[in-house]
Amino acid sequence: MTTYAPPRPAPFGRALCAMITPFTDSGALDLDGAQRLADRLVTEGCDGLVLSGTTGESPTTSDAEKAELIRAVRAAVGERAVIVAGVGTADTLHTVRLALAAEKAGADGLLAVTPYYSRPPQDAVEAHFRELADACGLPIALYDIPGRTGTRIEPDTMIRLAEHPRIVAVKDCSYDFLAAQKVLARTDLAYYAGCDEHILALYAVGGAGYVSTVANVVPARLRAVLDAFEAGDTPVSARLQQRATPLIESMTAAGLPGTVTAKALLNRLGLPAGPVRAPLRPADRETTDGLLRAYEELVGSCVRPEGAVSSSVG
């Protein structure tokens, strides 16, 4: 059997979790819970953790809380995983301040979303990311998620930004698979699937891995998709991706933000999560019951190379 050799580096690892930010019942930052969750995620297959991203409720955590979270998670996982800090804001100067604070707190890399609300044109988008990359010493992943920001990082902009030595990766939530392949073909950027349904598809055309919301609850199941593909067993990899689809749909495509669904399921499973912060609202009982059913259906079975069903793979 031929072993798959990834064609490009994965600067932040291959299996990354967009980690939720645990809060206490009163809504305060739960650093102990964050450490326990981070340790579990790394133990069960995550190479890296993205903190204070979309799933981490970055719009409603303070700058001080973001730095505290990095320090706490670093203490919990040590050098076992890469820590990527979300630093994207609508304000270039604020973004730079967050980046410098994240570097000081012990982050290994940065995730920077396109400035939102103001909808800057492409020359301004490019200037924003260049100013960030010039100001800090950490490698940067560009976060392309126009459905939330209102602004794409257009492929030609991405290609120009790839010339900067500290801009090394992309978290792709553009839902533009052609554009992703265009950038992959013309740059050395490491492309990470930011949408769980694209994990295998993007990896198969040269992506570096994924940054997953669903990995908060099933880190080993999603890592197995990459592992099977790397082992040269594409049919098993495809079946593993397909088996995860109902949970992916329940958590990311059923009308609620992934933060809400991930925390609802983690809470039901007795894992660190706590409430979401306003303006988000918790999932109702019916929704949470549905999430739990999808989770139980996934973890109750797995795919062996011959296609047989087993319950032994975690």
UniProtKB/TrEMBL annotation:
Pathway annotation from the record: Amino-acid biosynthesis; L-lysine biosynthesis via DAP pathway; (S)-tetrahydrodipicolinate from L-aspartate: step 3/4
Catalysed reaction, written as an equation: L-aspartate 4-semialdehyde + pyruvate = (2S,4S)-4-hydroxy-2,3,4,5-tetrahydrodipicolinate + H2O + H(+)
UniProt-listed PROSITE patterns: DHDPS_1, DHDPS_2
Lyase recorded as keyword: yes
Sites marked Part of a proton relay during catalysis: 54, 117
Coiled coil: none
Active site, UniProt feature: 143, 171
Protein's cellular compartments: Cytoplasm
Domain of life the protein comes from: Bacteria
Assigned keywords, A-Z: Amino-acid biosynthesis, Cytoplasm, Diaminopimelate biosynthesis, Lyase, Lysine biosynthesis, Schiff base
Alphabetical list of Pfam families matching this protein: DHDPS (PF00701)
Enzyme Commission number, as recorded: 4.3.3.7
Top-level EC class: lyase
SUPFAM superfamilies reported for this sequence: Aldolase
Annotated residues for binding of pyruvate: 55, 211
Primary location group: cytoplasm
NCBIfam families per UniProt: dapA (TIGR00674)
Known partners and oligomeric status: Homotetramer; dimer of dimers.
Family: Belongs to the DapA family.
Role summary: Catalyzes the condensation of (S)-aspartate-beta-semialdehyde [(S)-ASA] and pyruvate to 4-hydroxy-tetrahydrodipicolinate (HTPA).
Name of the featured protein: 4-hydroxy-tetrahydrodipicolinate synthase
Phylogenetic lineage: Bacteria, Bacillati, Actinomycetota, Actinomycetes, Kitasatosporales
Gene name as annotated: dapA
